[in-house]
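Need YfhL family 4Fe-4S dicluster ferredoxin's 3D structure for a figure. Predict it.
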Amino acid sequence: MALMITDECINCDVCEPECPNDAISPGEEIYVIDPNLCTECVGHYDEPQCQQVCPVDCIPLDAERPETHDQLMEKYHRITSS
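Structure prediction for YfhL family 4Fe-4S dicluster ferredoxin:
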């Protein structure tokens, strides 16, 4: 699944630079995650880095975008062209 940022986001700016796929960007009110670029850090790290640094724990899985580990790895390869 891709991750999402909830409206509990405090715009602290720590998640955006942690994303290896540049999937996180400032939205109109809070940061947002592009589900087409989010791989939950599969291919890069063992755990999603944005979740690790978020001080308010507002980055859950997006239940509306279920993806298997294999699908996330395919997306990683597509994004990185490797």
